[in-house]
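Typical record is below.
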Amino acid sequence: MPTRRFKQVDVFTRRPFFGNPVGVVLDGEGLSAEAMQRMAGWANISETTFVLSPTQPGADYRVRIFAPRRELPFAGHPTIGTAHAVLEAGIARPRNGRLRQECGAGVLELAVEGEGADRRIAVEAPPAKLAEVDAAALARVRAALGLATPHVGEPKVVDLGPRWLVLELADADAARRLAPDLGAVAEASRTLGITGITAFGRARASDHAFAVRSFAPAEGIPEDPVCGSGNAAIGVLLDAAAALPAGAREFVASQGRELGRDGYVTVRVDPKTRRTWIGGHAVTCIDGTRPE
């Protein structure tokens, strides 16, 4: 039976079985999109990626990213987990602390610092588009989340490839207490044409500024343990509203604790380009082969 090299990597953590897992097929050449989608469904995690030869000048490698139900042009933790796997496997090496990854959203810049268990990888998210949310749609979202208290500021749909409706809650406790009706979240997501809902609240903690939850049941992901694109969308929303914490351009978000997958994402908004970077650590939990 033909086999392909495979790693499963936990992202936004130093500890195995925390953070957010991504499956990485290191030998993606020759697989059809249908085969990739079938493998992603079998893996039963939020995303599976496939490493291919680049087609764009300057790219070190190409990646295709599949959620259980469809291909994504960009996603944060799969990008960082794939870069970790590619470096570990010796497929690519950073040049001047940089990698360039080709994906459906184009060629993205990644920053690499440190080695081994101390390695940190960050990616510059694609340019974002923001859209208003009408009152009726927002009321459906609030009902789906079971919100009884006011939200903060003006929620927006932030499009980074994945399209997240992002809203700020009263505080971190309000985010951590969420118990949404996932069927209603899926219905609202399909109606709005969004990937899902990312909700967050400000924390009074020494190691993180926000607690974050991301729900994407319409994509087959009831709750994403630690969502890179969702956290990038928070950075975009706060920057647009001039509401970054204490005027900072960088913050740490905590996500996944409610699922037993406690992870930490560093979010930085470049003051010149206004582009958002997300980063963190990663650790390999499975290293072997899998059948086609």
In short: The chain has a mean pLDDT of 95.
